[in-house]
Design brief:
4 copies of one chain form a homotetramer. Chain A contains 9 helices and no strands. By secondary structure, chain A is an all-alpha fold. Chain A has 2 domains: 59 residues, Homeodomain-like (Arc Repressor Mutant, subunit A), CATH 1.10.10.60; 138 residues, Orthogonal Bundle (Tetracycline Repressor, domain 2), CATH 1.10.357. The longest helix of chain A has 23 residues. The N terminus of chain A is likely disordered. Chain A binds a DNA duplex (21 and 21 nucleotides) through helix 2 and helix 3.
Chain lengths: 201, 201, 201, 201
Amino acid sequence: MANATTSNRPSLRHIGGDKREAIMSAALDLFVDRGFFGTTVPEIAEKANVGAGTIYRYFDSKEALVNELYRQEKQRFATNVIENWTPPSGARELFRTLWSKMAKFATQHPKSFVFLELHHHARYLDKASIELEQRMLALFTGTVIAAQARRELKDAPPRLLMALVMGAFVGVVRNCVEMSEPLTAADWQTAEQCMWEAIRA
Amino acid sequence: MANATTSNRPSLRHIGGDKREAIMSAALDLFVDRGFFGTTVPEIAEKANVGAGTIYRYFDSKEALVNELYRQEKQRFATNVIENWTPPSGARELFRTLWSKMAKFATQHPKSFVFLELHHHARYLDKASIELEQRMLALFTGTVIAAQARRELKDAPPRLLMALVMGAFVGVVRNCVEMSEPLTAADWQTAEQCMWEAIRA
Amino acid sequence: MANATTSNRPSLRHIGGDKREAIMSAALDLFVDRGFFGTTVPEIAEKANVGAGTIYRYFDSKEALVNELYRQEKQRFATNVIENWTPPSGARELFRTLWSKMAKFATQHPKSFVFLELHHHARYLDKASIELEQRMLALFTGTVIAAQARRELKDAPPRLLMALVMGAFVGVVRNCVEMSEPLTAADWQTAEQCMWEAIRA
Amino acid sequence: MANATTSNRPSLRHIGGDKREAIMSAALDLFVDRGFFGTTVPEIAEKANVGAGTIYRYFDSKEALVNELYRQEKQRFATNVIENWTPPSGARELFRTLWSKMAKFATQHPKSFVFLELHHHARYLDKASIELEQRMLALFTGTVIAAQARRELKDAPPRLLMALVMGAFVGVVRNCVEMSEPLTAADWQTAEQCMWEAIRA
DNA sequence: CATGAATGAGTATTCATTCAT
DNA sequence: CATGAATGAATACTCATTCAT
């Protein structure tokens, strides 16, 4: 693709990278709809159009594969949601921004989102994966507490508010994945308005 | 063997019932924290204190076991939530009632709740299990539509509202399961109030 | 077999034991003529007339199997050679006794002997197996040194004398295994006489 | 690529020969301490500092590689031991000569010696390799029989005597490989003296 | 009825070999 | 010629299921 500027250099740099991506993409799809244990390595290989052995040139094991996938997707999520993070003055604005960024991400990468949700607390996640998860959590918690201090959010346990909002968000995404029809922008806005009313002071 | 002497005592039939329950209970626990494919039949047997072969006297297969478990728990959930269903006059009251019944169920049987949530759309659920699921869904949908007609709920797609509420509820339950500390009654009430404000007109 | 004294007790005690033995015996044969890595687990299973999975009821892994086999055979060798170990007064007598016991063992269990020889220094032997090996070595070394002190053996490095004798013994056994025809008692005696002359003072 | 400019330099043909040697040398080392099945082709390639595919430019298969290696080493052994073979008048002298040539070979190429020993009767040796082995054996056998006719050696089955001597020799070599400390010239002489006394009439 | 030893189909993983560069 | 990424057949090992006791 955008390699116009390097067109005279054969795509040597890409060797392997393509396969690696194909494998991760196939794994994402399969893990989402069959679960980790429900997915076999040969299935991943077939879906990725590579030999079964090839997977092991890129990943130490099936477990290493989920973990790398988890971190990549979590990172992508974090990047999409938090990039250019200049916390707006008010909580209303902040919430709207976050929600719409999350919505955009979930719309563009619904599988990624569901995957992250499903594997949230799987026992095969390693330390690095779990830490990444917890760092994001801490970031949000801080923001909630600050907003509560300004009397913009209800005075409830931060984790409760976050659980409500994230749960509702996940509920919506799952619902549209299940029905395999994406939400309209209007629906996303409606949902956002609902959840803002759920948590505002 | 010695059952000739006890053939007139019908209560013996229940002895098997005990094992059946032990198996289902063990399976519930294990499925919740290892997943369906992550759980082995011998593990279930050991936790249930029965021989591995015994499981097959009560269930045709591992898959039949999840399905029966799913239906049993879904039924239990339905019974707990809907029993004595005399739809109160107003949506506010109805919502409060439903939420608190669900909260009570989720508090008393957290594993059941998480199990139902996790296996919601698993590919090993058979037709009967899926229908049961959809019947409950239809019931709720009808109620939502009726309330919207009375201008008591926001005018949003019913599935969206239900997804938000159920999602938020699940979010809260999962959160307290993860932290393995039950929510207080006050927290449940707070959450209910939040979500009511999310959906009310 | 010889269970006449316990004939009224069904051979419950033996359940599994038979299979375990069958597996070890099959493994011994195969390891001897194909090596450890050259032998597949299904091959062992087939030769032992058990399912492949059965092997894992008795042994944790293929590696655990070689190690148990090694220890069992080493033990058997030690028992056969050293039992009733009342070191005769003279080295001549001692040597004759040891040689003939080893010959008897090697004649009755040629595969065992070759197996021990082949796996002597394999990298898959665990600590316990190696220690067993070294304890026997130390025993012999001590005896040699004592005999040298009495001027009955040549004054050469004990390890050299032992290597010569054990090497020669192994050479003879291997040779007869290869030609698959057992040595006569006379040949064994001849060989013994040769090696005695090799080491005597 | 740039071989047009060097086409007139024949010595270039040897460059491949270097790789061939590197491969065989690496294979020798690895086969000796991990066995044939315990050694992987990529390992050999890495140790030889060539690409894995390169091995297949020089050898048809891994099996072809062991066989060529076997024949090469056997040949080298034969050459070293038998070259300038002018059978001395007496068996004593002959034995001393053979032993010291073998000792010299084993000292200079301990890996080669152990390799030949280990792979002696491996099932992956092909016909040509086995014949080479048997030709050497026949040569020795003839010499032994002749010496027995002259009453210089004990009157025992020739194969027995050869097995004793070769076994003892191997025992000594293995022992010093295991302890990874070479034998002194004196030790070699001692050993030779011992084994001569073992077989002389 | 209950058991758990036995099974073999199925899974993750390795490795000899090929082939595009 | 040389390479090493890619492959898939083969291997160690697991586990749902059966069945003799």
